Structure formats: C-alpha cells, structure tokens
Automatic annotation (TrEMBL):
It comes from Paenibacillus albilobatus. Its main location: cytoplasm. Participates actively in the response to hyperosmotic and heat shock by preventing the aggregation of stress-denatured proteins, in association with DnaK and GrpE. It is the nucleotide exchange factor for DnaK and may function as a thermosensor. Unfolded proteins bind initially to DnaJ; upon interaction with the DnaJ-bound protein, DnaK hydrolyzes its bound ATP, resulting in the formation of a stable complex. GrpE releases ADP from DnaK; ATP binding to DnaK triggers the release of the substrate protein, thus completing the reaction cycle. Pfam families: GrpE (PF01025). It comes from the Bacteria. This is Protein GrpE.
C-alpha cells in the first residue's frame, strides 16, 4: 500500500515538473516571437526613416541647385549691366562735345564761304587771309576734339554718310557716285555728326 502511494506521488511530481517545463518552453517561445516582432518593427521603422531622410536630402539638393542657378544668372546680369554702364560712360565722355560742335558747324560753313568769295577780290585779299587764319585755328581746335570733314567726291553714294539732294548725269563718274559736294559732312571720331549733302551721278 505504501509502495503504491509512493509511486503515485512520484508520478504526480513528474507530471508537475513536465508541466512546468512545458509552460516555460511556451513562455520562452512567446517571448522569442515577441522579440522577433519587435526587431521587425524596428527594421521597418529604420527603413521608413532612411527613405524620408533620402527624400529630404534630394529636396534640399534640388533647392540648393536652384539657388545656385539663380545666383549665376544674377551675377551674369550684373556683369552685363556693369559692362553696358561702362560703355555708356565711355561713349558719353567720348561724344560729350558733339552738341557744341554741331552748333559750330554753320559758323564753319560761313567761314568757308567767306574765304571762297574773298579769294576772287584782290581788294580784300588781306582780310581773307586773316579770316582764313582764324578759320584754320578753329578747325584745328575742332580737329583735336575728333572732328573730321568727310571726303565725298568720287566716293560711292552711301546713305549712312551722304544725303543726296539731286541726281545728275556724268561722263566722269560711274552711276551711284558722288560727283559734287553741296555741304560738307563731318565725323566726330567714328560717328556721323552730320551727313554730307551731295549730288549723285545717274
């Protein structure tokens, strides 16, 4: 009887130990599954964060490129403005006397006519010489400022330099050639100050 009771107790203890082991294994398995799930969630979160970071880097890079292009365009515009302003400043200094010289041209014309007319009269020859000296002096001052009379007779007609007032027949010159200068034309440096009035062969 005692032996049967002892055997039953041993069997109960064995079953209880087996039950404890099974419970522990189940708990360990559940803990392992939870750990795997947590690890997967962390990996997914890291992947999402990396994608968001990459997207933000790309956005900032595009923004930086846009700002760089704007800066380059602004620099180019500024350089063009500076060059244009410098050229305008140089042109202003170069042609600053053009208004004054233009107003003096009729006086030069009158000097020229007076000298030509006086040359035919012996009585006023000395006066003509004096006027001629004044004229040459004035001409020298204006020439120093860059004024040059155009050489027109015998040159092909060019509307940029000549103002045709008449067409005439000519055996000496080809068609479209300046045969006579009615009023002198003048250049101020490399710019036409006044076109020459001319007659052109037809």
């Amino acid at each position: 009887m005692k032996e049967n009771q002892q055997f039953q107790e041993n069997e109960n203890e064995l079953n209880e130990n087996q039950h404890i082991e099974e419970t522990a294994e189940q708990e360990n398995a559940a803990a392992g599954a939870g750990s795997d799930a947590s690890s997967t969630e962390e990996e997914n979160l890291e992947t999402v964060n990396a994608a968001q970071l990459q997207s933000e880097v790309q956005r900032l890079q595009a923004l930086a490129d846009e700002y760089q292009q704007r800066a380059l365009r602004t620099q180019a515009d500024f350089d063009n403005f500076r060059k244009r302003t410098q050229k305008e400043k140089e042109d202003f200094a170069k042609y600053a006397s053009s208004k004054l010289i233009t107003e003096l041209l009729p006086i030069i014309d009158n000097f020229d006519r007076a000298i030509s007319a006086a040359g035919d009269n012996a009585e006023i020859e000395s006066f003509a010489k004096g006027v001629s000296m004044i004229f040459r002096q004035l001409e020298g001052v204006l020439k120093a400022e860059g004024l040059e009379a155009m050489d027109t007779v015998g040159q092909p007609f060019n509307p940029e330099f000549h103002q045709a007032i008449m067409q005439v027949e000519s055996d000496e010159y080809e068609e479209g050639t300046v045969v006579e200068e009615v009023q002198k034309g003048y250049m101020l440096k490399d710019r036409v100050l006044r076109p020459a009035m001319v007659k052109v062969s037809m």
